[in-house]
Design goal:
The chain has 149 residues and is α+β, with helices and mostly antiparallel strands. The protein contains six helices and eleven strands. The two termini are 27 Å apart.
Length: 149
């Protein structure tokens, strides 16, 4: 499925800076980003158009395309936590908001995603704690701080 069809399916109009970037990368291409002071950073493997549509299967949870895999993690989190909220760097966020995030890259199980409810700002979902952290106002600003791996 191409990005235009994904946007229609999700009811999103992804930002042009992300769409331009998407056209320039190959699947798995890495960009390193330092999310904490005095930390060397992590290299994120970005999804190209093909990988965005690749199905992710979580045993006994379900299957979803890569760009929607937050839904799988949060279904599991909600089942075990009985909570409708996720801890974030900006306070508690409703699970529905985080689950609607558009996943663009992964690193060691953590997910980099765009938040449609915050003008497509860039966030990290930490799979170990099921918490999130806002790391940039936009993909352009994120890329300006990142280096190609």
């Amino acid at each position: 499925m191409n990005i235009a069809k994904i946007q229609v399916e999700r009811g999103l109009s992804l930002p042009s800076d992300y769409l331009d970037f998407l056209m320039t990368i190959e699947g798995g291409e890495g960009y390193c980003f330092n999310e904490y002071p005095d930390f060397e950073g992590r290299c994120w493997a970005f999804f190209d158009e093909e990988l965005l549509s690749e199905n992710i299967d979580m045993l006994q949870i379900g299957t979803a395309p890569a760009h929607r895999q937050l839904e799988l993690y949060l279904n599991c989190y909600q089942e075990f936590s009985n909570s409708n909220f996720v801890h974030s760097s900006d306070g508690m966020l409703p699970i529905e908001r985080v689950a609607n995030g558009f996943v663009i890259a992964e690193e060691n199980g953590d997910l980099l995603y765009l938040d449609p409810e915050d003008q497509f700002s860039v966030w990290i979902f930490h799979h170990d704690g099921s918490d999130v952290k806002k790391v940039s106002e936009s993909i352009s600003k994120w890329l300006a701080q990142a280096t190609i791996a």
